[in-house]
TrEMBL record:
Source species: Charadrius vociferus
Recorded GO MF terms: transition metal ion binding
Gene3D superfamilies given in the database record: EF-hand
Record CDD domains: S-100
Superkingdom classification of source: Eukaryota
Domain S100/CaBP-9k-type calcium binding subdomain: 20-59
A Pfam entry, by short name: S_100
Leader sequence residues: none
Protein's name according to its UniProt entry: Sentan
Amino acid sequence: STPIAKQLASIKALGKGSDLEKAFATAALVYNNSADAEGKLSKAETKNLLQTQFGGFIRGQENKPKYQEIISSLDEELENKIDFEDFMILLVSLTLMSDLLQEIKNVKTTK
């Protein structure tokens, strides 16, 4: 498979894109690279993708009730699939509860 950086570089509109635009494009590419022909992921694939691609954000969350609720919902009803919109909602939810978010907020910028 083609590396994400190369896929990003091939998107002309992102040539002068902002960091935020590139971040969202990366999320879309990671999702699309794993999705089926209908553009969806099984819940098991979603869980695996979160664990492999979002580990820094979910590490240490295992004992939090909201995290357990999200993960258990991926373990239930395996016939249902996740679309990109639902995947992004999962990413935002996991980011908001993450310990890593506080560390990111504490990063000082230099000018």
